[in-house]
């Protein structure tokens, strides 16, 4: 049984799935900690990701699942990848992000081994047009349930396998904030690794950019916030 399961929801990514997945897989190959498996839940309607998984199976253990359920629902696909995990630690990584530090898995494992944390988040930076910028160290704030995200994307998140909370499949823009708040209600504030371990790729087709460019973005975002507040009896 592996120590860490790297759980990756994948899809076509508007034709960029090959580039994104290769970059992520290459960053996994470089990890100094090698007691891990990769769990892929794939919403793709083609075999690009499957073919890459077969290629990279020469380098690390991969569990692949062609997920035909709830196509296009990011939270559902992420939950599916998490369900595949055999490891003691679940490390979520979105397909278009990648590990910045070669010691990322080693540090994550070390923190879980040395503390009683059930969930932790780590620092990240951003990448666009071959430039790294905007380093971010997560901070907890209770207004996160109102959409004020001071933690970043789920690619900075790791949880113990015993944590059974799942992403709310009714949400899109608030899927991360609601999940963090859910974990907070159950386990308290996260353990924070104040080092940059992960890179968030910034591009025009990322989910957050697509929603921001939507003419009804603000209205839809507010509806999701209202949904979350009612869910936790905060409205």
Polypeptide structure, described:
This protein is an alpha/beta fold and 235 residues long. It has one domain (4-133, 152-170, 183-201): Spore Coat Polysaccharide Biosynthesis Protein SpsA, Chain A, CATH 3.90.550. It is built from seven helices and nine strands; from the N terminus they run E-H-E-H-E-H-E-E-H-E-E-E-H-E-H-H. It has helices at 17-29, 48-56, 74-83, 104-114, 175-187, 207-212, 217-231, and strands at residues 4-10, 36-42, 61-66, 89-92, 98-99, 119-128, 131-136, 157-160, 191-201. Strands 1, 2, 3, 4, 5, 6, 7, 8 and 9 form a nine-stranded mixed sheet that branches. Helix 1 (17-29) packs parallel to helix 2. The model has no long low-confidence stretch (mean pLDDT 95).
What is the topology?
Elements: E1 4-10, H1 17-29, E2 36-42, H2 48-56, E3 61-66, H3 74-83, E4 89-92, E5 98-99, H4 104-114, E6 119-128, E7 131-136, E8 157-160, H5 175-187, E9 191-201, H6 207-212, H7 217-231
Helix pairs in contact: 1-2
Query: What separation lies between the terminal Cα atoms?
Result: 43 Å
| CATH topology grouping | Spore Coat Polysaccharide Biosynthesis Protein SpsA, Chain A
Fraction of helical residues: 25-40%
Which parts are unreliable, with pLDDT below 50 for 5 consecutive residues or more? none
| Mean pLDDT metric | 95
CATH class reads: Alpha Beta
Order of helices and strands: EHEHEHEEHEEEHEHH
Quickly give the CATH architecture. Answer: Alpha-Beta Complex
Number of strands: 9
Tally of separate domains: 1
Biggest β-sheet, characterized?
9 strands, mixed
Q: CATH homologous superfamily?
A: Spore Coat Polysaccharide Biosynthesis Protein SpsA, Chain A
Rg calc: 17 Å
Put simply, the count of helices is: 7
How much of the residues is beta strand, in percent? 15-25%
Shape call: globular
Alpha-beta classification: alpha/beta
């Amino acid at each position: 049984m592996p120590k860490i399961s790297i759980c990756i929801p994948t899809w076509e990514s508007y034709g960029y799935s090959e580039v994104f997945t290769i970059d992520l897989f290459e960053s996994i190959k470089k990890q100094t900690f090698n007691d891990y498996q990769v769990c892929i839940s794939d919403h793709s309607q083609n075999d690009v990701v499957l073919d890459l998984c077969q290629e990279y199976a020469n380098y690390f253990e991969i569990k692949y699942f062609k997920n035909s359920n709830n196509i296009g629902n990011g939270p559902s696909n992420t939950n599916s990848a998490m369900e595949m995990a055999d490891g003691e630690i679940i490390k979520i990584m979105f397909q278009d992000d990648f590990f910045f530090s070669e010691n990322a898995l080693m540090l994550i494992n070390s923190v879980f081994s040395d503390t009683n944390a059930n969930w932790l988040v780590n620092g990240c930076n951003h990448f666009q047009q071959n430039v790294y910028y905007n380093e971010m160290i997560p901070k907890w704030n209770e207004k996160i349930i109102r959409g004020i995200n001071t933690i970043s994307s789920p690619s900075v998140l790791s949880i113990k396998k015993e944590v059974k909370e799942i992403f709310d499949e009714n949400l899109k823009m608030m899927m991360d904030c609601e999940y963090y708040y859910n974990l907070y209600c159950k386990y308290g504030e996260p353990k924070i690794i104040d080092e940059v371990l992960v890179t968030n790729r910034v591009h025009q087709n990322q989910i957050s950019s697509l929603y921001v460019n939507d003419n009804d973005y603000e209205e839809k975002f507010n509806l999701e916030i209202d949904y979350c507040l009612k869910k936790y009896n905060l409205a």
